[in-house]
Design a protein that fits this description.
Keywords: Glycosyltransferase, Pyridine nucleotide biosynthesis, Transferase
Strand order of the largest sheet: 6-11-10-9-8-7
Oligomer: single chain
CATH class of the largest domain: Alpha Beta
CATH architecture of the largest domain: Alpha-Beta Barrel
Family: Belongs to the NadC/ModD family.
Number of helices: 11
Number of strands: 12
Organism: Ammonifex degensii
Structural class: alpha/beta
Subunit structure: Hexamer formed by 3 homodimers.
Helix content: 40-55%
CATH superfamily of the largest domain: Aldolase class I
Strand content: 15-25%
Catalytic activity: nicotinate beta-D-ribonucleotide + CO2 + diphosphate = quinolinate + 5-phospho-alpha-D-ribose 1-diphosphate + 2 H(+)
Order of helices and strands: HHEEHEEEHEHEHHEHEHEHEHE
Shape: elongated
Length: 292
């Protein structure tokens, strides 16, 4: 996972643990002796794509640096219900106190990867690429965009700082697409591509005249998208966006667009059903070593 996520992952995990454990796990501290070690498995209960195993491992290691965590499937694997995703051995108090945070990350990221993989599968054989949006959970964008990549999708801009996208409200204030593009070209680095959101064929023509690099077709009917692609004729990349679902993504891709951005990849996914189950416990750590 090194290089795949931001350097802020430790801070994200620290905040999540502080939120859940606070001054101490009252139940675990009362019930579980400090000298007990446990072996646990992460078990998936439905078909899906796995993302976030390294995050779950880091959660447990934050609470017990000596925890042994072993992947039983690869990150990004497509798994069936009943598959053991990973096993861990460590102090029982650490495993139980970190259980919910580890599962929250693993379930959520796997849900995103699963949704992304389904959408990618639905447009196989067509030129379009599935990309995400900025419709992410505040504070978790790097993790969620990582999960999109694990699921086979691509990332749109990470934030307002690394890409130019002139939207309808920018155009209203600037007065026209032409003027908005001119202002961007004057101030933004020349290495950045300029994208403009359009909602009609007239706006597509205006964007082409302004010499933009990417034209977003926002909430356009499929027939209009097809005509817009014909109109652009390769002079710019074409991105379809707005109300993209598993039901309509194939039809959208068939219009010939280059990119399909879907907020649904991150803003409304269902978590994959994964549980953590203690399988053994002992005062002797050596009895619970995972098989190599």
């Amino acid at each position: 996972m090194a290089g795949e996520l931001s350097l802020g992952l430790n801070e994200i995990i620290e905040r999540a643990l502080q939120e859940d454990i606070g001054t101490g796990d009252l139940t675990t501290l009362s019930v579980v002796p400090a000298n007990i070690f446990a072996r646990c498995v992460f078990l998936v209960k439905e078909e899906g794509v796995v993302a976030g195993l390294p995050v779950a491992a880091r959660v447990l290691k934050r609470l017990d640096p000596e925890v042994e965590f072993r992947h039983r499937v690869k990150e990004g694997a497509r798994v069936a219900a009943g598959t053991v995703l990973a096993e861990a051995v460590g102090r029982a108090r650490a495993i139980l106190s970190g259980e919910r945070v580890a599962l929250n990350f693993l379930r959520h990221l796997s849900g995103i990867a699963t949704r992304t993989a389904r959408m990618v599968d639905l447009i196989k054989g067509l030129r379009a690429v599935v990309v995400d949006t900025r419709k992410t959970t505040p504070g978790l964008r790097a993790l969620e965009k990582y999960a999109v990549r694990v699921g086979g999708g691509k990332n749109h801009r990470f934030g307002l700082y690394d890409g130019v996208l002139i939207k309808d409200n920018h155009i209203r204030i600037a007065g026209s697409v032409k003027e908005a593009v001119r202002l961007v070209r004057e101030s933004a680095p020349h290495t950045l591509r300029v994208e403009v959101e359009t909602g009609s064929l007239a706006e597509v023509e205006e964007a082409l005249a302004a010499g933009v690099d990417i034209i977003m077709l926002d909430n356009m009917p499929v027939a209009m998208m097809r005509e817009a692609v014909r109109l652009v004729a390769g002079r710019a990349l074409v991105e379809a966006s707005g109300r993209i679902t598993e039901e309509n993504i194939r039809a959208v891709a068939a219009t010939g667009v280059d990119l399909i951005s879907a907020g649904a990849l991150t803003h409304s996914v269902s978590a994959l059903d994964i549980s953590l189950e203690i399988t053994e416990s002992s005062v002797d750590r050596g009895l619970l070593t995972l098989d190599r």
